[in-house]
Each structure stands twice: as structure tokens, then as C-alpha cells.
Specification:
By secondary structure, the protein is an alpha/beta fold. It is about 30% helix and about 25% strand.
Amino acid sequence: MRRMRTQLSATIAVTAMILVPLNLPGQAGNKATSGRPDHLDPYTRGASDETDLIQKIRHNLLMLPYYGIFDDLGFNVNGGTVTLVGQVTRPTLKSDAENSVKKIAGIAKLVNNIEVLPLSPDDDRIRMAVYRAIYGDPSLSSRYAYRAAPSIHIIVKNGNVRLEGVVDSEMDKNVAGIRAKAVPGAFSVENDLKQDSK
């Protein structure tokens, strides 16, 4: 089953589970009509408490010292239950994420479903090659390479590449995907980049 990704600050629903990725900025919007909890409904009862909880969790995870461009962290909030999700390259990052979140007030139960990616010299080579291809592109490097928290994350598992994050335009998404697909040795490239809705 494919993991649903939604915009970070625009995710919450009282009756549904939500997924909050760390690397997607944006502003709160309207409640989704499709049943997918894509947007924050500011009129939902308890929304301010849950919004505060989401902001605290996001802050704690973003402050992890080894969270980087080759990792993808997110979390689900379902009432008082928080489920950490994503993929990381270091086992210590999985435990650090859990330790940083479990001390936040308001969390009744914490489930850590973060996957530690397998050690692989081939995957490491592909990660670096995709990084150089994307962040070395003049049209992308000027906007994305020098941010404190890079917005294009590169996840490689068993030779398969997935791009996660947010970009300014559909054109940037396409350029990043084309650059990643040109990397030799990658079996497949899944472009899950989202366009920032400012």
C-alpha cells in the first residue's frame, strides 16, 4: 500500500488519521472534500490543541541533529496516538526521533513505524549521484541547495529512488525527476515532490 503524503501545516482531521511530513511547508487551508485529510479545518473542535501538538512534534523532529537529505520523516496523529513514519539511513535516527517526541505533553500513545533503510554501498552511490544531479543543476541549486532544511529529500532503497518534499513549481518537480532518472544504476524513480501552495 502506498503511503499518502500531505502538506505539513495543512493537515488535521478530528475523526481521521493524518500524515504529517516534515519537509513540506505551507499554510493552513480548507478541509478536504475528497475524504483525504489534506487541509486543516480551523473550525474543527480541538483544532488549536491538535495544531499545537503537530507544531511541537514537527519542531522536535526537525531539530534532530542527524536528520538529513537522505531521510524522510513524517507522523500520523489520531486523537492522542502519534505514529512516526518514514525512512531513515541511520538506526540511531529512528530511536532519536522516538525519544524526542515521546516527552511531548498530550501524546497518550507513541508508535514508531520508521523504517531503517538497509546498508548498501550501491544505494549510497545512487544517493550521492542523485544528490549531485539534482542539487548540481543550476536551475535547482540556486533555490534549493542553500536552505537550512533542504526541501527535496532523496530516499533510496534497493536501487529504487523516491523524491519527497516540496518545490516552488511543477517545472522544478519535472526537472528534479528528469535529473534523478538520468542517474545510472537506479532501477526506478518515483517523483513524489509536491508543489508549494503559498
